[in-house]
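User: Please predict the structure of the protein below. I'd like the answer in structure-token form so I can feed it into my own downstream comparison script.

Assistant: Understood. Taking the following sequence of 410 residues as input:
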Amino acid sequence: MLKLAARTGRAKPSAIMVIADKAKQLKAEGKDVVNFSIGVPNFLPGEHVYAAVREWTSHDSGSYGTNRGAPELLDAIVAHLKQSGLDGYTRNNVTVGIGAKQVLYNLCEALLDEGDEIVFPAPYWTSYVDIAEILGARITILPCPSSQHYKLAPEQLDKALASNPKVFLFNNPSNPTGMVYTREEIAALADVLVKHPNTWIIADDIYNRLVFDGIGYHNFVQVKPELRERTFVMDSLSKTYGMPGWRVGFVAGPEAGVKALVTLNSNHITCLPEITEVAAIAALTGSQDIPAAKREEFSKRRDDVVNALQAIPGVHCPRPQGAFYAFPDISVAFGKSHNGKLIENDVDFCKALLDEKFVATVPGSAFGEPRSLRISYTCSPEQLQKGLARIQSFFAELSDARVERAAANA
């Protein structure tokens, strides 16, 4: 009997896309759906990006690019890193990929043999688990509940690194929580990392330009330069520049490691399309007005979301300071019911919220924290207010399932 490779059985469809697809289906049926489920920036890049692409079409070479990335794009990435406080990188330290997800897959493939251990905090981006499982890695998850503001404590990291895992994967600002580590918090974790020299570090920093409240973006390499030779810093155009469909991710790291990624590119994707590289260069080197304005908009929407959630009795939502997500602990609803539907967990809650109020959110269990759910607040202000009001209404309509059962049996 013919069989597929075992790794295909370990691959799972994205939980986020499952919810997003159902929301699209309901909308197609004429339902007034508010979609808080998918992390799309919901804005387009500046006109200078399109102008560069239009100009390029007049002299398209039609040829392959390089496995590493066009030299002009590599220079733009190096300059972008320097603006973020990551100085000292050259073309030899950077390469590109078809979005951050493909960069992350390449990194894990380059660093992890089957059976190797990878460590990361929860809540985590869903693909972390999926990629590690496809590659047959051993996964160690470090729980960081809402009671510690979804942030990793140095003592947790120190204990986890005692077993010399092959890779430590860290996301700042965080998807799904929107939490951002301060310089002091990054420095405390970096002190621990210095003590454990046998572990590679992947810093998933794709939201680094979406940081609020003036706290700034901070990275392990900034505070401990000696970590540079075992740290890979990931970034992307998707979130900062409103370009998720252009699929441009990039990574900076030690030269030998990046060279391995370039070799993987030669086998996986060959190169980025030239038109995509032209757009990326324009985005990175042109006006930054739109990203700056959107950062301000998102911070204001963050305030609206947090205020609405904190007004709901029993809901706890640590205040996010970056990205465009909120991650409230909604476990106060467990054991209650809505219109006779028992809510036992986060999946029940999100399903009932979508079915009854037509608000799409993602269960926290998809991110390793089943007491919560993720709200992406990139929609219009009008849609945001409508969705938040519906969530408040949903909570107000919850009833104690035990009381209902007792009344039914009386």
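That's the full token string. Residues 105 and 310 are 37 Å apart (CA to CA).
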